[in-house]
C-alpha cells in the first residue's frame, strides 16, 4: 500500500546520469510501505523520464513569452477569442483603446459587446465564412468606444482549427481607421459637389452654345447671298456638335468622359435629319464600340466626324444619287483609328490634308493635329478618311 506521509516529498524531480553517460530528468512519485498495523516498514519510489516533456514545456513557455512580447510591442490591437465570442487574450493596446485599466477587466468578456448591434450579424458571417482552406479575412466595421462613440476599425481575423476542421479560436489584429474613413467621406462629399457643379457647367455651356447656334441660324435666314448663308449654316452645325457633347456630359454618370459611341450615333442622326430630310436615299452606318473619351479628345473628334459626314452627305451623292456613308472606330492598345468612308463620286484628284484649301478639310487637319493624330485621305471609288489618334490606357476598352 502506497501512502504519502511523513517528511518524504510525495513528488520531486532531479537529474540522474544513465549508464551511457546521458543526463535525464526524472519525476519521482514517492510513498511509504506500512504493515498490517499501519507501521512504516519502508518506502517506494516510481520514476518517470520527463526530459522531453519538460523541454517541450520550456519551449512552449518561451514561445508564449515571445508571442506576448511581440504583440505587446505592436501598435496594432490584438485579441484572441473563442467561437462563442469570449475574449481569451488582449494586448495592452486593445485594453487601452477600450478604456480598461487592466487586461483582466477585458479578458473573459464577450467580444461582440464592443460591436454595434446592427453590425454583429455581419461580423458573425465573416467568421462563419472561414475554413481551413481560407482561414483569414480582412474587413471593416464600427466599434463602440469607451465613451459610447462609434469609431471605425479594420480587422484581419484568422481562425485556428482542430484536427476535425472545426474552429476552436480566432486571432484578430486591428487598427483604428476612423480618420481615414472620415477623410474619405469628406472627399466623396466634395467630389459629389464638384460633379454637380461640373454638370451644371456643362448644362450652361450647352445652353450658351444653343443660343449661339440659334443666333447663327437666325442670321443665316437674313443673308441673301447663298454662299454666305451656307457658311453660316455650316458654322451652326459645328456649334451644335459641340453643344451635343456637353449635353451628353450633363446626362452622363461620369462627368470627365463621354461615351463617344452614343455621341456619334446621336450626331449622325441629327446630321441625317438636317441634310437628307429623312428621305433615306443615303444610308449612314455607325460602327463605334463603347469608347469613353475625355472632353479634350471628344470635342475635336466630334467636330471631325461632323465635318466629314456633312461633306459626304452634301457632295458625295449629287443629283439624288443613293449610297452609303460608314463611320467606325477601331481601338487597339493606346491608339484608336476613326474611319469615315463613302461610296460616292469620290475626289477629282488626290488631296494632301496638310495642304487642303477648302475650309472643311482645313478644319479637319487642324483638329487632327490638336488630338495628336495622323490624318490620311484615300480616294476612288468613293472617299475614305482615316484619323489615327492616341487614347489613354483604358479608354479603348
Count the beta strands: 16
Report strand order across the widest sheet. Answer: 6-5-9-8-7
Rg from Cα? 42 Å
Shape: elongated
Q: What number is the mean pLDDT?
A: 83
Low-confidence stretches: 1-5
Distance, first to last CA = 89 Å
Percent range for β-strand residues: 25-35%
Task: Describe the main β-sheet briefly.
Answer: 5 strands, antiparallel
How much helix, percentage-wise, in residues? 40-55%
Number of helices: 8
How would you characterize this protein structure?
The chain is an alpha+beta fold. It is 41% helix and 29% strand. It has 8 helices and 16 strands. The strands form 4 sheets. The protein has a 5-stranded antiparallel sheet with strand order 6-5-9-8-7, sandwiched between helices. A 5-stranded mixed sheet has the order 11-13-14-16-15, covered by helices on one side. Strands 1, 2, 3 and 4 form a 4-stranded antiparallel sheet that branches. A hairpin with a 5-residue loop joins strand 5 and strand 6. Helix 4 runs antiparallel to helix 5, helix 5 runs antiparallel to helix 6 and helix 7 packs antiparallel against helix 8. The radius of gyration is 42 Å and the shape is elongated.
Summarize the SSE layout with pairings.
Layout: E1 2-3, E2 11-17, E3 23-34, E4 40-49, H1 51-73, E5 77-81, E6 87-90, H2 92-97, H3 117-128, E7 136-144, E8 150-161, E9 167-176, H4 178-221, H5 226-251, E10 257-259, H6 260-275, E11 282-287, E12 292-294, H7 295-316, E13 323-332, E14 335-342, H8 359-370, E15 374-379, E16 383-390
Parallel strand pairs: 11-13
Antiparallel strand pairs: 1-3, 2-3, 3-4, 5-6, 5-9, 7-8, 8-9, 10-12, 13-14, 14-16, 15-16
Helix pairs in contact: 4-5, 5-6, 5-7, 6-7, 7-8
